[in-house]
Amino acid sequence: MQTPIPVTVLTGFLGAGKTTLLKHMLKAEHGLKIAVIENEFSEAGIDSQLLGDEPVQVMTLANGCVCCTIHTDLTKALYLLLERLDAGDIAFDRLVIECTGLADPAPVAQTFFIEEELRDRYILDGIITLVDAAHADVHLTQAIAQAQVGFADRLLLSKTDLVTAEAVETLQERLARINGRAAIRIVEQGRINLAELLDVRGFNLNPDLGASITRSLRPVLKPATPDRISTLVLRSSTALDIDRLSEFMNELLENHGKQLLRYKGVLNIAGDDRRLVFQGVLKLYGFDWDSEWKADEARESVMVFIGDELPEDEIRAGFAALT
Q: What is the C-alpha separation between 128 and 140, in angstroms, rounded?
């Protein structure tokens, strides 16, 4: 069986520096064979030679990376890359998808859950969102910019040299309110350690899920005028009944599935010594049994929801009723 190709989705509002970051990734001597898909709405193409009338154009660069410019839907481009890979025409072991500045990351992420063949051949590794520190206040008035932050597994701040240290700190606090589980990093002129971008494992169901959720969440104060998108954390030290939990989740997804951008959790289920881990995007989610709780470990259930105008009090009350 072929090893799935890790996919990184790169998003961010117009002018945040996605193309600059991609150019750095493609020029760096990292020894990786990275394929990049960008579309015609990008602020500036990676290579003018790629532009033309063909729906999909593919070119191999000098360092072995592969560039793909698309004038069609993403699914077709993904299949085309696989065809050329299987035929030996190109070689790559990672894929980066650059979204347009006004794009919603949700359909891109869902592509790798819905299409069975794509699900087998690719594995979504993480969503990386660039945030322009100099213009974030303006950008974040747009719902789509907040959604890009909410979907992220990692947030990269660009243009921090154009603002004060206090402004950067204030922005970091705001981003943490919107998305409490994404690590925040600084990127300078597109330069950043690739280890910050690759092997993020944002969509993995893994043994460290509970610990990573707890580590990444930061205590934040609610602002007087909250953003539309925010992080909701539910915790319980009481073992949960799996049937009642299932009813709670089904009702939540039925009523608010379109508002749930990303969600993850590690759960302590009554009558079972194993963790139950789950994650989802909108109404698509998966779960699995994981390793057993350690004897000296506190069995705490933690659920993290990043949503668009979620009725927090209602959801908290529903979860409290489980315990």
A: 16
Q: What is the pLDDT of residues 173-196, one digit of tens each?
A: 999 999 998 999 999 888 888 888
Q: State both tokens at 195.
A: 């280890």
CATH architecture designation of domain 209-320: 2-Layer Sandwich (3.30)
Contacts of 175 (CB under 8 A, 6+ apart): 131, 149, 155, 182, 184
Tell me which residue has tokens 């049994």: 289
**Is the model's pLDDT at 43 over the cut of 50?**
no
Single-letter amino acid, residue 42: S
User: What does R_g of the chain's alpha carbons equal in angstroms?
Assistant: 20
- Give the predicted TM-score (pTM) of the model: 0.84
Domain ranges across the chain: 5-196, 209-320
- In this predicted structure, what is the pLDDT of residue 303? 93
With beta carbons less than 8 A apart as the criterion, state whether 231 and 179 touch. Answer: yes
DSSP 162: G
C-beta neighbour count of 310 within 10 angstroms: 20
Tens of pLDDT along 2-28?
Answer: 789 999 999 998 888 888 888 888 877
Fold held by 5-196: Rossmann fold (3.40.50)
